[in-house]
Amino acid sequence: MKIIVCVKQVPDTTEVRINQETGTLIREGVPSIMNPDDKAAIELALRMKDLKPEICVHVLTMGPAQAERVLIEALCMGADEATLLSDRKFAGADTWATSIALAGAIQKIGADIVLCGRQAIDGDTAQVGPQIAEHLNLAQATYVSDAVLGRGGVFATRKFEDGDYKLELPLPCLLTTLAEEIDVRYMHTHHIVRTMKERKIQLMTADDLKVDQRELGLKGSPTRVKKSVTKSAKSAGICYVDNPEVGVERIADYVKGLNIL
Amino acid sequence: MDFQLSEQNKMMKMLFQAFAEEQVKPMAAEVDEEEKFPIENVKKMAENGMLGIPFPEQYGGAGGDILDYVLCVEELSKVCATTGVVVSAHTSLCAAPIFEFGTEEQKEKYLPALLSGEKLGAFALTEPAAGTDAGSQQTKAEKVEGGYCLNGSKIFITNAQYADLYVIMAMTDKAKGTRGISAFVLERDTPGFRIGKKEKKMGIRGSATCELIFEDVFLPEANRLGKEGKGFSIAMKTLDGGRIGIAAQALGIAEGALEETVRYTKQRKQFGRSISKFQNTQFVLADMATKIEAARLLVYRAATLKGEGKAYSVEAAQAKLFASEVAMDVTTKAVQLHGGYGYTREYPVERMMRDAKITEIYEGTSEVQRMVVATNLLR
């Protein structure tokens, strides 16, 4: 059985700076890390492998050469194989073009389960995982906090605001995972030494994929960024706890006081 | 000359940094305050392969290099010097002599459990009357049928209470002086062996430092490490390696204190501005950072020489001498820059200052390191 985990290298900051003219992220000078939700996806895959050592965990990332770093980290955590999907033709891709490329790579490698992080901290779209599932016609569960292998399928727990949903998915399927719900293991010294000796990272380019190249990169991206704005901070506001009649009066008085009525 | 860490070293450092920050740092004050041995974190380090880093995979080690191991002790000691010395004593003083001087049978018997962290190791040389003068051993191992009968005691033994295996030095022939000392491996549950008084210490208070007592302990011949009479030489070579571990610990303590001080001086406001804006603060910080970098180069050089199988005894002594004195100096300055708060337990620098002092004393005092360096110069 093969599990493919899609990971992304992201800037390590909660305050992502944006180039106001181009609307793109400024990555220079910001250290890069593995996206936290993606690390949780690796953890779930490795937990399945802990129980069934014959499972092969294959990590996949799309990005420039330096994105190899997150693949190395995943191998050092215990993943078996890794693929770097890298080509100038992928540059400038939005979620649609990214998911087309990743789906093409997944199809080529072959997977029984695909695991993705819910969303990346640099874009926060949560679209790539579900889009891959649609391209490959896979059953999917998003916002997964736990998953175990069952007979011929996967039992997944989806974490929603109103409670947990337990689902059984047939294989092949795709899950997107939540970092805040999954304790991730550290790298292991033995895996680090092995990874550095073997360097099992395969390079894949656009020409290796059976996809329409017009759908890749900036050209294949339907998203157009018109303008990027930084949300200004809002104050906490005032909270009145009272019965409705008194409450209405207090709010009316307050609004009157602002001279807007 | 290459001053770069290898890719492997960098990944190891990333692991140790994350582990130290997330697992070790939150416990450090409690470990110190309550003199609590960090057993839970020792187990977690074992799970992550941190207790057998520089040993071959064939015995269950990670197959890493000495610099990987140094980075581990350094990163741990940045946040908790107690945790740093647990790893250093286990690795350098117990697993290393078994690996370097043990027979194939001894390596196969003891190393897998030690390197996986299933068992913790300790080393026992010091006695009440044999500190720097380590040759004056009183503990005796008398030859009896099939082995030796061990009687005596050891003091100041790191990891003592929690260790499962001990490398012990004892006199097998008093008439021969240091050439009458032999090394042995002792297992925890051996009849006649018990742990004595636990020391109350100034620093590294979580490290279980105790007395070991031997009363008619029978050690089979198979437990002797190296040839009879070679114990002193084994002990000295073991301490050469151990000094790299303690130098790494000292380096880590100094770095931790500098990080805390940089953070504090940026936050602390006096006379209407951060104290980091004052030139006095800046100059002190600059000196601290420069000394740390010099110490780092000495420590990494000694580690690299050992890793390459070259002579490293003098370099290890220089690294330990310099790094430990830098640790003491930097932590003292860190407390000074923290002012009154630095003297309280609200901030970690007073602990770091107390922890730093031992690095000038154990595994050879600074005076012993100077003797090693000078002897080499004047030979």
Explain what you see.
The complex is a heterodimer of chains A (261) and B (379). Chain A is α/β, with parallel strands linked by helices. Helices cover 28% and strands 25% of the residues of chain A. Chain A has six helices and eleven strands. In chain A, the strands form two sheets. Chain A has a nine-stranded mixed beta sheet, sandwiched between helices. In chain A, 39% of the residues are buried. By secondary structure, chain B is an alpha+beta fold. Helix content of chain B is 54%, strand content 15%. Chain B has ten helices and ten strands. A four-stranded mixed beta sheet of chain B has the order 1-4-5-8. In chain B, a hairpin with a 2-residue loop joins strand 2 and strand 3. Chain B starts with 6 loop residues before the first helix and ends with a helix. Classes of the chains: A alpha/beta (261), B alpha+beta (379). Chains A and B meet through helix 2 and helix 5 of A and helix 1 of B.
As laid out across the biggest beta sheet of chain A, the strand order is: 9-8-7-10-6-1-4-5-11
Instruction: Please indicate the percent range of residues of chain A in DSSP E strands (runs of 2 or more).
Output: 25-35%
| Spatial shape of chain A | globular
Helix vs. strand class of chain A: alpha/beta
Strand count, sense and barrel status of the largest sheet of chain B are: 4 strands, mixed
Distance between the termini of chain B: 28 Å
- Rg of chain B, alpha carbons: 21 Å
Mean pLDDT metric of chain A = 91
Strand order of the biggest β-sheet of chain B = 1-4-5-8
Structural class of chain B: alpha+beta
